[in-house]
Amino acid sequence: MAINRSSVMTVEDYFEWELKQERKHEYIDGVVIEMPGVSGRHDAITVNIIYLFISCLDRTRYCMHTSRLRVQASPSRYVYPDLTLVRGRSVASDVSEYNLINPCVVLEVTSPSSMDRDRVDKLGYYFEVPSIEASLIVDQHRVFAELYTRGKASWLRQAFTELDDVISLPMLDCELPLDQVYRDIVFE
Length: 188
Known about the structure:
Blueprint: E1 5-8, H1 11-18, E2 25-28, E3 31-34, H2 40-56, E4 62-66, E5 70-74, E6 77-79, E7 83-87, E8 99-100, E9 103-109, H3 115-127, E10 134-138, E11 145-150, E12 155-160, E13 166-169, E14 174-177, H4 178-181
Parallel strand pairs: 5-8, 9-10
Antiparallel strand pairs: 1-3, 2-3, 2-6, 4-7, 5-6, 7-9, 10-11, 11-12, 13-14
């Protein structure tokens, strides 16, 4: 399924229009991009990760948000990560509280139609958000996760390809065992 893109509109028009839509749409430099639906596998991986974070996150120090909340990557770029974590109190750029501006970790679970956007475009947008310390991309069709963490001079990439790998997130004091990320997921 291809991602549907619409003609150019202003940010203000997008905010007003998006509130009336049944499906989510990202906004990138004036272009509105319809978000594809998710598969059962995509959803199961996301839920597995949510369970892992619930078991290890200190809820007095961190907030977790699902894909229903947008992240403002810049004044002209608004995206929906599959999961967003915030250190401290969540802060929005607007009174509607739809546009989060202080994520510390974002998660994307790839879909066939969004894989390139997740790994290239959106990752680049996340690199530009000063509060983001890590971006995790998890593949739904194979055991494969990429963790990008902010270093002193550049972003560092780690790849995880084995079910016995453990993704360490020291900025959250959490670890995500890959066998639990992919719990009950069957690969053909």
